[in-house]
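Agenda item 2: adenosine-3',5'-cyclic-monophosphate complex prediction
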Amino acid sequence: MTQQTLTIIKPDSVENHNTGKIIAHLENEGFRILAGRMVHLTEAQARAFYAVHKERPFYNDLVAYMTSGPVWPLALERKDAVTYLRQVMGATNPSDADAGTIRSLYGESIERNSIHGSDSPENAAIEISFFFAASELV
Ligand code: CMP
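Presented output:
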């Protein structure tokens, strides 16, 4: 089933000049880009985006990290996009990620892990609408 998901190319990837390589990797895996832009998140935006993690011990560090430099949110479309993106990304901690996955190729640590991906179709819809109006998905 064709599905939509959201990825965010994180500050470490932008800093390390890996944005283009990650977008090429996603396109090679059959994702179609519906929308994308570079944005430097405010603290309020990062707190709201990651609100589901607000009780976690790493929440403040995560917010500080995600506002430390520009990121690229991208809305993506593909068959089984949510599950497939999670496979292509690899495990949250790059040291646990399978060889050839984006996090294994480009991630540096559990925080600087190169890319975010929605964890369910429900959250994908919420996360896409966080960054893009329906009219911007083309
Ligand atoms: P992401 O997929 O963007 O969703 C939440 C993020 O929290 C996760 O990637 C990690 O980069 C980050 N994070 C930082 N520390 C931890 C931790 N100890 N456990 C899980 N996620 C963490």
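Discussion summary: The chain has one domain: 2-37+72-136.
Owner for follow-up: CH.
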